[in-house]
Here is the input.
Amino acid sequence: MAISSLSLTFTSKTLTNQLCRRGGSRSRGVSSSNRITNCSIIISSDEDKKNSKRRALVLGIGALTLNSIIGSPLLAEGIPQNYEAFVDKADGYSYYYPSDWREFDFRAHDSAFKDRYMQLQNVRLSFIPTDKTDIHDLGPMEEVVTNLITNIYSAPNQVADLLSMQERNIDGRNYCTFEYVLTSPNFARAAFATIAIANGRYYTLIVGANERRWKRYRNQLKVVADSFKVFDI
Here is the structure.
């Protein structure tokens, strides 16, 4: 994909949060944004010190330069307004998230961001090993998705409803994004999930919110779901 001219601005704290990440249920690689002009990595606050162990890998990867970030085909289309890019070059994936969201630890997930005030409004990314090479190797997509929302994503007391499903191919890789609602007796949550397979890994990105807020925020969260991409590592 052709690389367009990028306007690159960033604060050192945001750069630290996106370049120096490592956590979840396993060690992770470098995260990055392409909106950078002056690259300085500062780990000084109490919050950063808590995460210093998670971020330590970045200190050993000095080869990650501004040129390599700009040159990434994942960012060639440019970042939409009011979003930031999260790129994990070590684990082979990227996605956008709203710029006012903050990073947090979500158990058994590789990365996660949430709204500062509505914490159930969040995005998280996980992956597991697989011997499959494409999502279609899992079976017919409608059957795969139905099984996911009814047997994997939902709790025993929840009812799962599939609202929509969309497949797409980007740079020769197949993705499936589906919209669903999980309803329990006193609560309902709506979400988009996007699945993909690459690098011997089965990736899943889920972004969602309280069902009562879904109509208002659905389009914003759809941008996140559609932005998810995987690449070779």
Remarks:
- The helical segments are 12-19, 46-50, 52-55, 66-70, 141-152, 211-227.
